Amino acid sequence: MLDRFPAMLGSVIEAALAPHPVDRYLELVDPMITWSDLRGRVVDVRRDTARTVTLTLAPTRQWTGFRAGQYIQLSTVIKGVRHTRCFSPANAECGPDGFIELTITAHDDGFVSRHLRDHAAIGDVMGLQPATGDFVLPQQRPEQAVFISGGSGITPVLSMLRTLVAERHTGSSVFIHYATTPADAVYADELNAIAAANPSIDIHTIYTRHTDADGPTGHFRPEHLTELAPNFAQAQTFLCGPAGLMEAVREYYSERDLDGALHSEAFTAPSVAPDPNEPVSGTLSFASSARTAENDGHTILEQAEAAGLSPEFGCRMGICFSCSAVKKSGCTRNVLTGDVDTDSDTHIQLCISAPVGDVEIDI
Question: What is the pTM of this model?
Fold first, then answer.
Protein backbone atom coordinates (compact mmCIF):
# COMPACT_ATOMS: atom_id res chain seq x y z
CA MET A 1 0.00 0.00 0.00
CA LEU A 2 2.78 2.41 0.94
CA ASP A 3 4.54 1.96 -2.41
CA ARG A 4 1.39 3.18 -4.15
CA PHE A 5 1.06 6.28 -1.96
CA PRO A 6 2.97 8.75 -4.24
CA ALA A 7 0.83 7.81 -7.26
CA MET A 8 -2.36 8.03 -5.17
CA LEU A 9 -1.32 11.42 -3.82
CA GLY A 10 -0.57 12.60 -7.34
CA SER A 11 -4.04 11.58 -8.50
CA VAL A 12 -5.66 13.48 -5.62
CA ILE A 13 -3.65 16.63 -6.37
CA GLU A 14 -4.38 16.41 -10.10
CA ALA A 15 -8.10 16.08 -9.37
CA ALA A 16 -8.07 19.02 -6.97
CA LEU A 17 -6.38 21.29 -9.52
CA ALA A 18 -8.51 20.20 -12.49
CA PRO A 19 -9.04 21.13 -15.28
CA HIS A 20 -5.31 21.95 -15.59
CA PRO A 21 -2.53 19.47 -14.75
CA VAL A 22 -0.32 20.23 -11.76
CA ASP A 23 2.59 21.12 -14.01
CA ARG A 24 0.64 23.99 -15.59
CA TYR A 25 0.67 25.67 -12.19
CA LEU A 26 4.21 24.73 -11.25
CA GLU A 27 5.66 26.10 -14.48
CA LEU A 28 4.41 29.56 -13.48
CA VAL A 29 6.98 29.43 -10.68
CA ASP A 30 9.76 27.59 -12.50
CA PRO A 31 9.33 25.49 -15.69
CA MET A 32 11.91 23.03 -14.33
CA ILE A 33 9.81 22.25 -11.25
CA THR A 34 7.51 19.51 -12.51
CA TRP A 35 5.26 16.85 -11.01
CA SER A 36 5.07 14.53 -14.01
CA ASP A 37 6.39 16.33 -17.13
CA LEU A 38 9.93 15.54 -18.29
CA ARG A 39 11.81 18.67 -19.34
CA GLY A 40 15.35 19.81 -19.95
CA ARG A 41 17.07 23.15 -19.45
CA VAL A 42 19.71 24.16 -22.00
CA VAL A 43 23.00 24.61 -20.12
CA ASP A 44 25.35 24.89 -23.09
CA VAL A 45 25.04 25.89 -26.75
CA ARG A 46 27.66 25.38 -29.46
CA ARG A 47 27.45 26.20 -33.14
CA ASP A 48 30.44 24.29 -34.50
CA THR A 49 29.36 24.51 -38.15
CA ALA A 50 27.17 26.89 -40.09
CA ARG A 51 24.32 24.36 -40.23
CA THR A 52 24.40 22.79 -36.77
CA VAL A 53 23.72 23.63 -33.16
CA THR A 54 24.76 21.42 -30.26
CA LEU A 55 22.61 21.68 -27.14
CA THR A 56 23.46 20.24 -23.74
CA LEU A 57 20.38 19.78 -21.57
CA ALA A 58 20.06 19.14 -17.85
CA PRO A 59 16.88 17.06 -17.47
CA THR A 60 14.38 17.07 -14.64
CA ARG A 61 14.13 14.26 -12.09
CA GLN A 62 11.85 12.17 -14.38
CA TRP A 63 14.76 11.42 -16.73
CA THR A 64 15.78 7.76 -16.61
CA GLY A 65 18.76 7.90 -18.97
CA PHE A 66 19.24 6.34 -22.40
CA ARG A 67 21.07 3.61 -24.26
CA ALA A 68 23.51 4.59 -26.99
CA GLY A 69 21.64 4.84 -30.30
CA GLN A 70 18.19 5.60 -28.88
CA TYR A 71 16.29 8.80 -29.63
CA ILE A 72 14.16 11.21 -27.65
CA GLN A 73 11.28 13.49 -28.58
CA LEU A 74 12.08 17.15 -27.96
CA SER A 75 9.37 19.80 -28.04
CA THR A 76 9.72 23.56 -28.18
CA VAL A 77 7.28 26.44 -28.49
CA ILE A 78 7.62 28.63 -31.57
CA LYS A 79 5.28 31.63 -31.84
CA GLY A 80 2.88 30.08 -29.36
CA VAL A 81 2.73 26.66 -31.03
CA ARG A 82 4.43 23.58 -29.57
CA HIS A 83 6.41 21.53 -32.10
CA THR A 84 7.92 18.10 -31.51
CA ARG A 85 10.85 16.44 -33.26
CA CYS A 86 12.97 13.32 -32.71
CA PHE A 87 16.70 13.56 -32.04
CA SER A 88 19.35 11.07 -30.93
CA PRO A 89 21.68 11.99 -28.06
CA ALA A 90 25.29 12.12 -29.20
CA ASN A 91 26.95 11.62 -25.82
CA ALA A 92 27.84 8.28 -24.30
CA GLU A 93 24.91 6.43 -22.80
CA CYS A 94 24.14 7.43 -19.25
CA GLY A 95 21.75 6.90 -16.37
CA PRO A 96 19.24 9.23 -14.72
CA ASP A 97 21.89 11.68 -13.47
CA GLY A 98 23.39 12.36 -16.89
CA PHE A 99 23.12 15.24 -19.30
CA ILE A 100 21.74 15.03 -22.83
CA GLU A 101 23.78 16.27 -25.81
CA LEU A 102 21.85 16.87 -29.02
CA THR A 103 23.45 18.03 -32.25
CA ILE A 104 20.78 19.34 -34.60
CA THR A 105 21.34 20.02 -38.29
CA ALA A 106 19.26 22.80 -39.84
CA HIS A 107 17.77 21.52 -43.08
CA ASP A 108 16.28 23.84 -45.70
CA ASP A 109 12.77 22.55 -44.98
CA GLY A 110 13.38 22.04 -41.25
CA PHE A 111 11.20 24.58 -39.48
CA VAL A 112 12.16 23.46 -35.98
CA SER A 113 15.80 22.66 -36.73
CA ARG A 114 16.33 26.10 -38.30
CA HIS A 115 14.65 27.78 -35.33
CA LEU A 116 16.90 25.96 -32.86
CA ARG A 117 20.01 26.63 -34.93
CA ASP A 118 19.21 30.35 -35.01
CA HIS A 119 17.61 30.98 -31.61
CA ALA A 120 18.40 28.28 -29.02
CA ALA A 121 20.04 29.83 -25.96
CA ILE A 122 21.28 28.88 -22.52
CA GLY A 123 18.37 28.85 -20.10
CA ASP A 124 15.75 27.68 -22.61
CA VAL A 125 13.51 24.91 -21.31
CA MET A 126 12.44 22.14 -23.71
CA GLY A 127 9.85 19.42 -23.32
CA LEU A 128 11.20 15.87 -23.46
CA GLN A 129 9.93 12.32 -23.72
CA PRO A 130 11.81 9.27 -22.37
CA ALA A 131 14.40 7.73 -24.66
CA THR A 132 13.20 4.92 -26.86
CA GLY A 133 14.24 2.89 -29.90
CA ASP A 134 15.75 -0.50 -30.70
CA PHE A 135 18.80 0.79 -32.57
CA VAL A 136 21.24 0.23 -29.71
CA LEU A 137 24.53 -1.40 -28.88
CA PRO A 138 24.00 -4.99 -27.73
CA GLN A 139 24.63 -5.59 -24.05
CA GLN A 140 27.39 -7.97 -25.12
CA ARG A 141 29.62 -5.45 -26.87
CA PRO A 142 30.87 -6.62 -30.29
CA GLU A 143 34.52 -7.53 -30.60
CA GLN A 144 34.51 -5.95 -34.06
CA ALA A 145 32.24 -3.03 -34.96
CA VAL A 146 31.80 -0.86 -38.04
CA PHE A 147 29.94 2.45 -37.73
CA ILE A 148 28.67 4.13 -40.91
CA SER A 149 26.95 7.50 -40.81
CA GLY A 150 26.06 10.37 -43.07
CA GLY A 151 25.16 13.97 -42.22
CA SER A 152 23.07 14.31 -39.06
CA GLY A 153 22.96 10.51 -38.79
CA ILE A 154 26.28 10.74 -37.00
CA THR A 155 24.71 11.33 -33.57
CA PRO A 156 23.44 7.82 -32.64
CA VAL A 157 26.54 6.02 -33.91
CA LEU A 158 28.83 8.60 -32.29
CA SER A 159 27.00 7.90 -29.04
CA MET A 160 27.81 4.22 -29.54
CA LEU A 161 31.48 4.93 -30.21
CA ARG A 162 31.73 7.29 -27.23
CA THR A 163 30.13 4.61 -25.05
CA LEU A 164 32.71 2.01 -26.08
CA VAL A 165 35.51 4.50 -25.40
CA ALA A 166 34.06 5.39 -21.98
CA GLU A 167 33.83 1.69 -21.13
CA ARG A 168 37.44 1.13 -22.26
CA HIS A 169 36.18 -1.52 -24.64
CA THR A 170 39.09 -3.46 -26.09
CA GLY A 171 37.47 -4.55 -29.36
CA SER A 172 38.29 -2.96 -32.71
CA SER A 173 36.10 -0.35 -34.35
CA VAL A 174 36.02 1.40 -37.72
CA PHE A 175 34.05 4.64 -37.96
CA ILE A 176 33.16 5.89 -41.46
CA HIS A 177 31.33 9.21 -41.74
CA TYR A 178 30.08 10.88 -44.93
CA ALA A 179 29.99 14.69 -44.99
CA THR A 180 29.55 17.06 -47.90
CA THR A 181 32.65 19.20 -47.19
CA PRO A 182 35.14 19.67 -44.32
CA ALA A 183 33.08 22.67 -43.17
CA ASP A 184 30.14 20.33 -42.54
CA ALA A 185 32.12 17.69 -40.65
CA VAL A 186 30.76 18.22 -37.14
CA TYR A 187 32.76 16.40 -34.43
CA ALA A 188 35.78 16.11 -36.76
CA ASP A 189 38.25 17.26 -34.10
CA GLU A 190 36.87 14.92 -31.46
CA LEU A 191 36.88 11.96 -33.82
CA ASN A 192 40.52 12.62 -34.66
CA ALA A 193 41.32 12.82 -30.95
CA ILE A 194 39.54 9.52 -30.29
CA ALA A 195 41.54 7.83 -33.03
CA ALA A 196 44.81 9.27 -31.72
CA ALA A 197 44.10 8.04 -28.19
CA ASN A 198 42.78 4.60 -29.16
CA PRO A 199 44.90 2.46 -31.50
CA SER A 200 42.03 -0.03 -31.94
CA ILE A 201 39.75 2.64 -33.46
CA ASP A 202 40.08 3.80 -37.07
CA ILE A 203 38.30 7.00 -38.11
CA HIS A 204 37.57 7.93 -41.74
CA THR A 205 35.65 10.92 -43.04
CA ILE A 206 34.59 10.73 -46.69
CA TYR A 207 33.58 13.97 -48.40
CA THR A 208 30.90 13.74 -51.05
CA ARG A 209 31.51 17.19 -52.57
CA HIS A 210 35.17 17.78 -51.86
CA THR A 211 37.67 16.08 -54.14
CA ASP A 212 40.89 17.50 -52.64
CA ALA A 213 40.79 15.34 -49.52
CA ASP A 214 43.12 12.43 -48.93
CA GLY A 215 41.50 9.03 -49.27
CA PRO A 216 38.17 8.07 -50.85
CA THR A 217 35.60 10.69 -51.86
CA GLY A 218 32.06 10.65 -53.17
CA HIS A 219 29.00 8.71 -52.08
CA PHE A 220 29.13 5.18 -50.73
CA ARG A 221 30.78 2.53 -52.88
CA PRO A 222 31.59 -1.05 -51.86
CA GLU A 223 35.31 -0.37 -52.07
CA HIS A 224 34.94 2.14 -49.23
CA LEU A 225 34.21 -0.81 -46.97
CA THR A 226 36.66 -3.25 -48.46
CA GLU A 227 39.50 -0.71 -48.26
CA LEU A 228 38.72 1.02 -44.94
CA ALA A 229 37.11 -1.86 -43.03
CA PRO A 230 38.44 -5.04 -44.68
CA ASN A 231 37.04 -7.21 -41.87
CA PHE A 232 33.52 -5.78 -42.11
CA ALA A 233 32.04 -9.21 -42.93
CA GLN A 234 33.08 -10.44 -39.47
CA ALA A 235 31.88 -7.31 -37.68
CA GLN A 236 28.59 -5.91 -36.45
CA THR A 237 27.72 -2.82 -38.51
CA PHE A 238 25.66 0.12 -37.24
CA LEU A 239 24.26 2.47 -39.88
CA CYS A 240 22.41 5.79 -39.78
CA GLY A 241 22.15 8.51 -42.40
CA PRO A 242 20.31 9.79 -45.46
CA ALA A 243 18.03 7.47 -47.39
CA GLY A 244 20.46 7.08 -50.30
CA LEU A 245 23.30 5.97 -48.06
CA MET A 246 21.07 3.61 -46.10
CA GLU A 247 19.70 1.99 -49.24
CA ALA A 248 23.12 1.53 -50.83
CA VAL A 249 24.67 -0.07 -47.75
CA ARG A 250 21.66 -2.32 -47.12
CA GLU A 251 21.70 -3.49 -50.72
CA TYR A 252 25.40 -4.33 -50.55
CA TYR A 253 25.04 -6.24 -47.29
CA SER A 254 22.03 -8.11 -48.63
CA GLU A 255 23.97 -9.18 -51.73
CA ARG A 256 26.61 -10.67 -49.42
CA ASP A 257 24.04 -12.34 -47.11
CA LEU A 258 25.09 -10.10 -44.23
CA ASP A 259 21.66 -8.71 -43.34
CA GLY A 260 21.88 -10.13 -39.83
CA ALA A 261 25.07 -8.20 -39.11
CA LEU A 262 23.63 -4.83 -40.19
CA HIS A 263 21.72 -2.67 -37.72
CA SER A 264 20.23 0.60 -38.90
CA GLU A 265 18.09 3.57 -37.94
CA ALA A 266 16.59 6.30 -40.07
CA PHE A 267 14.55 9.36 -39.17
CA THR A 268 12.71 9.87 -42.41
CA ALA A 269 9.07 10.18 -43.32
CA PRO A 270 7.46 6.95 -44.51
CA SER A 271 6.68 8.36 -47.94
CA VAL A 272 4.76 5.65 -49.74
CA ALA A 273 4.39 5.46 -53.48
CA PRO A 274 1.09 4.00 -54.69
CA ASP A 275 1.17 0.29 -55.39
CA PRO A 276 0.84 -0.10 -59.18
CA ASN A 277 -1.09 -3.33 -58.62
CA GLU A 278 -3.71 -1.58 -56.50
CA PRO A 279 -5.67 1.15 -58.31
CA VAL A 280 -5.95 4.41 -56.40
CA SER A 281 -9.31 6.13 -56.37
CA GLY A 282 -11.49 8.45 -54.35
CA THR A 283 -11.48 12.01 -53.10
CA LEU A 284 -9.79 13.34 -49.99
CA SER A 285 -11.94 16.02 -48.35
CA PHE A 286 -10.48 18.44 -45.81
CA ALA A 287 -13.56 19.39 -43.82
CA SER A 288 -12.26 22.38 -41.83
CA SER A 289 -10.55 23.93 -44.87
CA ALA A 290 -13.34 23.28 -47.37
CA ARG A 291 -10.81 21.82 -49.80
CA THR A 292 -10.67 18.59 -51.72
CA ALA A 293 -8.00 16.63 -53.55
CA GLU A 294 -8.06 13.58 -55.75
CA ASN A 295 -6.48 10.72 -53.85
CA ASP A 296 -2.99 9.98 -55.20
CA GLY A 297 -2.19 7.14 -52.78
CA HIS A 298 0.31 9.00 -50.60
CA THR A 299 -0.15 9.66 -46.88
CA ILE A 300 -2.83 12.12 -45.82
CA LEU A 301 -0.14 14.45 -44.43
CA GLU A 302 1.65 14.55 -47.79
CA GLN A 303 -1.58 15.06 -49.69
CA ALA A 304 -2.68 17.82 -47.31
CA GLU A 305 0.63 19.62 -47.81
CA ALA A 306 0.35 19.18 -51.58
CA ALA A 307 -3.08 20.80 -51.37
CA GLY A 308 -1.58 23.87 -49.74
CA LEU A 309 -2.50 23.05 -46.15
CA SER A 310 -0.11 23.15 -43.20
CA PRO A 311 -1.29 20.64 -40.58
CA GLU A 312 0.82 20.38 -37.47
CA PHE A 313 3.29 17.50 -37.49
CA GLY A 314 6.28 16.33 -35.51
CA CYS A 315 8.38 13.27 -36.26
CA ARG A 316 6.61 12.25 -39.50
CA MET A 317 7.21 8.62 -38.48
CA GLY A 318 4.10 7.79 -36.44
CA ILE A 319 5.90 8.23 -33.12
CA CYS A 320 4.98 11.60 -31.59
CA PHE A 321 1.24 11.82 -32.47
CA SER A 322 1.59 15.55 -33.25
CA CYS A 323 -0.28 15.14 -36.55
CA SER A 324 -3.33 13.40 -35.11
CA ALA A 325 -6.66 14.52 -36.61
CA VAL A 326 -10.22 13.26 -36.68
CA LYS A 327 -11.22 11.10 -39.62
CA LYS A 328 -14.91 11.90 -40.07
CA SER A 329 -15.60 9.14 -42.58
CA GLY A 330 -13.95 6.72 -44.99
CA CYS A 331 -11.31 4.01 -44.90
CA THR A 332 -7.59 4.53 -44.29
CA ARG A 333 -4.58 2.21 -44.35
CA ASN A 334 -1.66 2.36 -41.95
CA VAL A 335 1.37 2.50 -44.27
CA LEU A 336 3.61 0.91 -41.63
CA THR A 337 1.47 -2.06 -40.66
CA GLY A 338 -1.00 -2.38 -43.54
CA ASP A 339 -3.96 -2.32 -41.12
CA VAL A 340 -7.15 -0.64 -42.37
CA ASP A 341 -9.47 1.57 -40.33
CA THR A 342 -13.10 1.98 -41.38
CA ASP A 343 -14.39 3.69 -38.22
CA SER A 344 -15.90 7.17 -38.41
CA ASP A 345 -15.13 10.06 -36.04
CA THR A 346 -11.86 8.53 -34.90
CA HIS A 347 -8.40 10.04 -34.42
CA ILE A 348 -5.74 8.93 -36.90
CA GLN A 349 -2.12 9.87 -37.51
CA LEU A 350 -1.82 11.76 -40.78
CA CYS A 351 1.83 10.88 -41.41
CA ILE A 352 1.25 7.12 -41.51
CA SER A 353 -2.32 6.97 -42.86
CA ALA A 354 -3.20 6.75 -46.55
CA PRO A 355 -6.78 7.04 -47.84
CA VAL A 356 -8.52 4.06 -49.41
CA GLY A 357 -11.27 5.53 -51.55
CA ASP A 358 -13.20 8.59 -50.33
CA VAL A 359 -12.05 9.99 -46.99
CA GLU A 360 -13.15 13.08 -45.07
CA ILE A 361 -10.63 14.39 -42.56
CA ASP A 362 -11.08 17.28 -40.13
CA ILE A 363 -8.23 19.52 -41.27
Answer: 0.77
